[in-house]
Write a structure and sequence with these properties.
The complex is a heterodimer of chains A (278) and B (291).
Chain A (H helix, E strand, L loop, with lengths): L11 H29 L18 H9 L2 H32 L5 H13 L6 H11 L5 H5 L6 H12 L3 H9 L4 H12 L1 H17 L2 H6 L8 H10 L6 H21 L1 H12 L2
Helix pairs in contact in A: 1-13, 2-13, 3-7, 3-10, 3-12, 4-7, 8-9, 10-14, 12-13
Chain B lengths: L1 H34 L17 H7 L2 H32 L6 H13 L2 H12 L5 H8 L14 H25 L5 H8 L4 H12 L1 H17 L2 H6 L11 H11 L3 H29 L4
Classes of the chains: A mainly alpha (278), B mainly alpha (291).
């Protein structure tokens, strides 16, 4: 990863200045999170008093956990992201294979129609999709939150690019041995695409863990609400909930992603990188 | 038989994805246009054709114009700054700075956090009297200010959050691009006696152009899509000063329950996205020299 150039080693003074600038920005960027951690782990009396000796507590987390059905929200979000990811991977793999390795009339048109979703995301079609969910009788279900995202143009695009790099000889060899199209896909293409699947999975999970507007619209009960909507309902109820508890709830809902990110930092960054290079 | 099978196979593979795409992207996009010419169904009167009536009321709707204008300011305020910061971050993280591991972590962290969650933190940050920002301004002896309650500062406060959330995300794309630029280029430029700034202006920045255009498209789409923090921090207020188009669509469609008008508003957003797509086809595809 050491690709940085050594040709332009700046003078020590300007180098120090730049390091200072980079660090200042870094500290600014981490400040809101650090602040949240401070508030959540201290009694509310210390939420804006920054003293070294302030007592630590987990009470805010306990209070938050007991004040709203967060366990259920966690379950809902977990079900949601798993379902969405599974559907995206299966549908995306099948479609990408067709686009990458079959010649058929109208292929470019179909590909164009799929790419249209990169611009016209389900996120902005909330009015009509809500109507559709009503008509399908799916309103206020977890399936309804995920359904518009099952077919992902981004996933199909990414996998198509990957499958196109698989040498045709591998494909032909498997076919000569009598494998069907689906068998070739499962035995040759899917194993070779593994890093891309991982990259896509991380991007998809973090997107749907964080998604808010559509779930807010299509759900209205504890049994279906994901964490993001649950957190919003909890923190906007005007019962004078104190900041320490809201902050604790905020950290709690972000924790799985945050911990996952800290543990697999390199994979995360590389996944987003891989997903971004077209 | 065999040839029939090979002809049908790709369509069968595409079928499930296409059915869902048509149902939840193509159909609703067209239905939005269609519905924008109809009135909202009421108890006494079912939905009926009203021509361009929804658009006529849109032209006279001050909140719509305000939301559109706010969205323009939001985009103009967010995009150039977050792109400039992203380039700086990528250059720093890619260089030999002390602690670049920590820096990469710090810059990127906002990207993985839910907007709705961090909006709560930022809300507390901006809170009058006991928020963190107030504490800092008090120490500096500056007057107290209600950042989210003042029409002239509320949009700026939201823009800051958007930049904070996005810059690290865009950094990743620049980092990927920087790592593909051969170091020999920098050595050659140094031999020619170019300064660092000249190297950046004349070599790096042009080489990063495809990335910049890609990021720009993403940023444009995000400036339409990123409205979650409004729900927590301002609810579009005060006095619609922080209402963006998508938030207004939500209000009209799901609080005021005027779905006909919400459809007309959505058409405007689709038109904006269409413009972005046109821009992308026109400029991005032509100037990008890798696939």
């Amino acid at each position: 990863m050491e690709t940085a150039s050594t040709a332009f080693r700046p003078a020590p003074a300007s180098r120090a200045l730049e390091t200072a600038g980079a660090w200042l920005l870094g500290l600014l960027w981490i400040l809101p999170l650090a602040y949240a951690v401070w508030t959540a782990f201290h009694p509310s009396a210390y939420s804006t008093r920054f003293e070294i000796g302030a007592p630590l507590t987990l009470q805010n987390f306990v209070n938050a956990w007991n004040a709203a059905p967060f366990a259920r929200y966690f379950l809902n979000t977990t079900l949601l992201v798993t379902m969405v990811l599974a559907a995206q991977l299966v549908l995306g793999t099948l479609a990408a294979y067709a686009l990458a390795r079959f010649e058929f009339p109208g292929r470019d048109l179909v590909f164009g129609l799929i790419l249209l979703q990169l611009m016209v995301m389900p996120d902005v079609l909330i009015v009509e999709n809500y109507r559709t969910m009503n008509a399908l009788g799916l309103r206020d279900t977890i399936v309804a939150i995920g359904l518009p995202y099952f077919a992902s143009a981004f996933g199909i695009f990414l996998l198509r690019q990957t499958f196109k790099t698989v040498p045709r000889e591998l494909d032909d060899a498997a076919r000569v041995e009598g494998a069907s199209a689906l068998q070739v896909l499962m035995k040759v293409y899917v194993p070779l695409g593994r890093p891309v699947y991982l990259a896509y999975a991380l991007v998809s999970v973090s997107y749907h863990w964080n998604n808010f507007l559509w779930p807010l619209i299509v759900t209205n009960s504890v049994e279906t609400r994901p964490l993001t909507v649950g957190l919003q309902v909890f923190s906007s109820s005007d019962q004078g909930v104190d900041w320490s508890i809201i902050t604790a709830a905020t950290l709690m809902t972000s924790a799985p992603l945050l911990v996952g990110f800290l543990l697999f930092q390199r994979q995360f960054v590389q996944s987003f990188m891989r997903a971004g290079i077209r | 038989m065999e040839s029939f099978r090979t002809r049908v196979t790709p369509w069968l593979l595409l079928l499930p994805a296409m059915v869902l795409l048509v149902t939840f992207t193509h159909w609703p996009a067209l239905a939005t246009v269609w519905d924008s010419f109809f009135s909202t169904a009421k108890k006494a009167r079912p939905s009926h054709f009203i021509g361009i009536e929804n658009y006529r009321s849109m032209v006279q709707d001050d909140v719509f114009w305000q939301a559109l204008w706010n969205n323009v300011i939001y985009a103009v305020g967010t995009i150039p700054l977050s792109i400039a910061l992203a380039i700086a971050m990528a250059l720093w993280v890619n260089s030999h700075l002390v602690g670049r591991g920590f820096l990469r972590l710090a810059y990127f962290t906002p990207t993985v956090l839910p907007m709705i969650a961090v909006a709560n933190i930022w809300l507390f940050f901006y809170t009058p009297q006991y928020g963190l920002l107030e504490q800092i301004t008090q120490v500096l002896g500056l007057p107290s200010h209600n950042w989210l309650g003042d029409k002239s500062t509320v949009l700026g406060a939201l823009i800051v959050v958007a930049i904070w959330k996005e810059a690290g995300f865009f950094m990743i794309f620049y980092l990927a691009a920087l790592q593909q630029i051969p170091p020999t280029l920098a050595e050659a430029a140094a031999l020619e006696g170019a300064s660092r700034w000249q190297y950046f202006r004349r070599v790096l920045f042009p080489l990063l152009m495809p990335t910049t255009l890609f990021v720009l498209i993403n940023a444009l789409i995000n400036s339409v899509r990123m409205v979650d923090h409004i729900f927590v921090m301002t609810r579009g207020g005060p006095d619609s000063a922080s209402t963006l188009l998508l938030y207004y669509i939500y209000q009209v469609g799901f609080s005021f329950l005027d779905t006909g008008y919400a459809a007309a508003l959505t058409v405007v957003v689709l038109a904006v996205l269409g413009l972005v797509a046109f821009f992308q086809l026109r400029f991005l595809e032509r100037r990008t020299h890798y696939q």
